[in-house]
Design a protein that fits this description.
- The protein has 342 residues and is α/β, with parallel strands linked by helices.
- The protein has three domains: 126 residues, P-loop containing nucleotide triphosphate hydrolases (Rossmann fold, 3-Layer(aba) Sandwich), CATH 3.40.50; 92 residues, no CATH class; 52 residues.
- It is built from ten helices and eleven strands.
- The strands form three sheets. The chain has a six-stranded mixed sheet, sandwiched between helices. A three-stranded antiparallel sheet has the order 2-1-4, covered by helices on one side.
């Protein structure tokens, strides 16, 4: 569905990742893992076509639709909630309007004329296209998705500008879900959601008909949804054939194996180097020394395991003891107009 080949992204002297290749198959669920700034969101923007990579290629079959939900920065105004989400069915609405316009023209023509027959045939073809889009389900689908994301029926007529940033993200998410692109790119989709809505979104994504690429700090969502993980670290990207928990276990195992291989090779290199240093000046051992020198040059060095990314930690000193009375209120009252609170 989507093929990423030898992708490279750099900002100045910093390389986020290099020679990255993988493919996305229909209905796959792939998690991007790594610390903040490792390149997860950047890769997602490359796939969405927002950022051009420094090298490599991203390709997909013609007609493949890619939908992207960023972490933040979406703000819509001047349209009601219903109008904005209804625009997800832009193609369906445009087709309906065209059929209505042509039908209005049809009644003006002579039914016995050639233009009448041609126009009637065109309307029939458009109606067949419209039937495949199932316009009868448009309204119930919009209602279902909006209510699933926490909106109430009385919110449908509110202007989008009345909603806060978190709710604006829900509007954008609703449009994406209704559009159902073949590839869905989600960057922290549950950040602004309450528990009930998170559960609904998780269930919706489980049943989503397309492929999903996901960035999230929600471990439960990553484990439930994803079957592949691409981890970013130290300018490289590694692939793991499992969910986030599998990635955590497997990455530790890979580092342990690499460390053992590195230490074994270092011991071998040290033994060879000691032999060379010991018999370098010996004429009788000259052939053996040269053989060891060539052997040492041919060894493909295993890189030293890199340290884990630094993790910031905090330690707060114990607070001093407070007094027995923290606050004292006497004859306090509060009201909003005629409404007395206390």
């Amino acid at each position: 569905m989507i093929s990423i080949q030898s992708l490279r992204v750099e900002f100045g002297a910093r390389v986020l990742f290099n020679d990255l290749s993988f493919s996305v198959q229909p209905r796959e669920r792939i998690a991007f893992a790594g610390h903040n700034g490792a390149g997860k969101s950047t890769l997602m923007k490359c796939v969405a076509g927002i950022i051009q990579p420094s090298g490599g290629q991203i390709s997909s079959p013609r007609g493949t639709r890619v939908g992207y939900l960023p972490q933040e920065g979406i703000h819509v105004k001047g349209r009601t909630l219903w109008q904005e989400t209804e625009s997800a069915f832009g193609e369906t609405m445009a087709l309906t309007e065209k059929i209505d316009r042509l039908s209005a023209e049809l009644v003006k023509l002579d039914p016995r004329s050639s233009p009448y027959g041609d126009l009637l045939e065109e309307i029939g073809e458009l109606e067949l296209q419209l039937d495949t889009m199932d316009p009868a389900r448009m309204k119930p689908r919009i209602e279902s998705v909006l209510k699933g994301l926490g909106f109430r029926a009385k919110d449908f007529t509110r202007d989008c500008s009345e909603f806060s940033g978190g709710w604006q993200m829900r509007i954008a998410m609703a449009k994406l879900f209704l559009q159902e692109p073949e590839v869905l790119l989600l960057d922290e989709p549950t950040n602004h959601l309450d528990i009930g809505t998170q559960i609904w979104v998780e269930q919706y994504l489980i049943n989503y008909p397309g492929a999903i690429l996901l960035i999230s700090h929600d471990r439960a969502l990553l484990d439930t949804l994803c079957t592949r993980t691409i981890a970013f670290s130290h300018g490289r990207a590694e692939e793991y054939a499992g969910n986030f928990s599998y990635f955590e276990r497997e990455s530790v195992l890979r580092k342990e194996i690499q460390l053992k291989q590195y230490e074994a090779q270092q011991r071998e290199i040290a033994d060879i180097q000691r032999f060379i240093d010991r018999f370098r000046a010996s004429a009788n051992k000259a052939t053996l020394v040269q053989s060891r020198v060539k052997m040492l040059a041919k060894i493909e060095r295993i890189p030293a395991p890199e340290r884990d990314d630094a993790v910031m930690s905090f330690k707060f000193p114990p607070p001093p003891n407070s007094g027995h009375m923290v606050a004292k209120l006497e004859a306090v009252h509060k009201s909003y107009g005629a409404l007395n609170i206390f």
